[in-house]
Amino acid sequence: MDITFQYDSAESDGFLESLPIELISTIFVHYVHSIPTTSPLTLGKICRRWRYIAWSTPELWTELTMDSLHSTSETHIELAEEWLGRSGSLPLSIKYSSYQKGTGDIDEEPIEADSEMLAYSQRMLKVLSRCSDRWHTLSLVLPSNVIEEIGTLTRPPSMLHSLSLEARRVDVDEFRLHARYPSITVTFLKCSPKIVDISFLKVSLDWTTVTVLNIKIVNIAEVACIFQDAQNLSECTLEAVHAYGTRITTIRESNVVVCPHLTSLVIFFASVTSQELFCSAISLPALKYLTFVGMEDNDTELSMDGLISFLSRSSCALVNLEIDEADFHSGSLIDLAPLLSSLTELYIWSSDDRISYEKDAFYELLADPTRVPTHVLPSTPYTAYPMLPCLEIYDWHGCKPYPWLTVPGLLNPVSPNGFQHRRPLQLVKIHCTDMPGRMLYIPQVVVRLSEECDDVEFDLSVVSDWDSP
């Protein structure tokens, strides 16, 4: 229902005065919460009666959002205090940032915080903390030395459902060399949120109820500890998983940690060491959706043997996989194929612009394994053809030419034992971005196939990157 307020003083004495306060209050609540950009302060500007009703309706004041443009003045500190005071005893949703949200890159330049910003941030944090027992959703983006000051709350945040914390002004070299970053060790120990998002910060809390977790920059030892306790975790994103300061032998000698309900994992590794430790320490039997890549602009080669060992130990039935073949040894993607019999969606990035016929063996295997040399065939035991028999979505993006002549075999793969099976493909998407000087084209046989297959959507393109040097 759309509601638009148009005030006419000539009509107010009749119509508005005739409505009971309870009805106007209900209309106000619906209006404010159905339009994100609407503030209850607007209602108070209409007339004295509306201001009285708005000021005395706690449901209008349960959501407080203050970004970096409206959070560094005495006026806004007073406004926040009054705002929260009008919310009565209701659960609160608070979003406060003394910085603009960054790009999310760990390599972005740190932002200096001046003394005035620090002072206002500290005072605002004290105002918000006075109602910590009513926090339902809390999102804070603060200077690292301020966010640590959240300290021990006099009112434990027992109602907390969603927690998002980002520490700003981080010295990335300190992460890389010494694994030093801000930490909050006591404040949230007794709260049990279900949704947690942490950036550039270490937080100790009760992980047992967490179902959705996002962490940016995290030590592999910390990951193992979290997975040990977060037995209800279902979705997880881990960015910049590192092993700085980790005792490798301790993790390798520990028992494998099983996280039984985790179905979706997006993980970016900062080094091959952190990847190998993860693969040897973690088992995810319910995993269905996996994005498994190295950090962008990181030349470290990941271990395919580690990934295969992880998937084999987990005995999971993947249905969705996203991977960058450039993260692994040339041609090693072929060894992964026998473990993907349940896969319905495959997304491959190829950020390496070097042409490698060894890498093409994986695509030959999907199309016609009889053309793959025996010594190149997967080392993992397998008995059935074709590989990836359940594939429905095939999406490939790369900065090199694609082996186009394998595309017909994606639909009707050749079987060496004569068994006929057509994959249930619904979408074939291939996008090549290449350097100038190479001849880019889609063979006629592939173009004709895309025109003749009515039950499969084809999205094929080749682009020369003329802006490249």
Question: What keywords describe this structure?
Answer:
single chain; 18 strands; 14-stranded parallel β-sheet; two-stranded parallel ribbon; 469 residues; LRR_dom_sf; disordered N terminus; alpha/beta
Q: Can you put this structure into words, describing what you see?
A:
With 469 residues, the protein is α/β, with parallel strands linked by helices. Among the domains are: 18-60, no CATH class; 65-100 and 114-170 and 180-206, no CATH class. It contains 15 helices and 18 strands. Strand 3, helix 7 (144-147) and strand 4 (162-168) form a beta-alpha-beta unit. Helix 5 runs parallel beside helix 6 and helix 11 (272-281) runs parallel beside helix 12 (304-314). 31% of the residues are buried. Pfam families: F-box-like. Residues 16-65 form the F-box domain. This is F-box domain-containing protein. InterPro entries: F-box-like_dom_sf, F-box_dom, LRR_dom_sf.
